[in-house]
């Protein structure tokens, strides 16, 4: 199997693919796209992802045996899961539940936590309205996840899937890079906290988070 070419940077979205590739155990070659230096704006990377965002992959052995490039982390997770037959349940109902939670992360959790982090940590001027708005919504989403995890080891039942990979990096950035655990009362979401510990204990998760680090 020819190695998949991974173009990424260790943001929450970028870390997803490092984790997935490590979990799947398929050959890949990482390429650092340093977004702090504008690597994502180069013509070479734009040819892979016209939206100029990480991550992106090129699989030399695509569905028809020809190279295929894919961008958007959720789409890549689904592609890799279907390509390998792993990290996605065989049962159709459970499969679509996993897809639901991947889309939930892509459409809700990720954008909300990203906006929260921007206004809470990076904005040159503290805009209380924005911080309050995204604090409230971040807590609501943590509550949704906490409820989903009640009585389960993982997001969908007791099977570790791409839904866990998609969500965990964004949950971890709250207490890590953003240093907002106390502000968001993350410790109160006990199911989320225990699930994060469970997922982060996996060697592939630990290694995958460091992939494409400059």
Automatic annotation (TrEMBL):
Highest taxon in the source lineage: Eukaryota
Protein keywords: Transferase
GST C-terminal domain: residues covered: 91-214
Pfam family, one: GST_C
Top-level taxonomy: Eukaryota, Fungi, Fungi incertae sedis, Chytridiomycota, Chytridiomycota incertae sedis
InterPro entries: Glutathione-S-Trfase_C-like, Glutathione-S-Trfase_C_sf, Glutathione_S-Trfase, Glutathione_S-Trfase_N, GST_C, Thioredoxin-like_sf
Residue stretches in coiled coil: none
Domain GST N-terminal, residue spans: 1-88
Family affiliation: Belongs to the GST superfamily.
Name used for this protein in its record: Glutathione S-transferase domain-containing protein
GO MF terms, alphabetically ordered: transferase activity
Organism expressing this protein natively: Gonapodya prolifera (strain JEL478) (Monoblepharis prolifera)
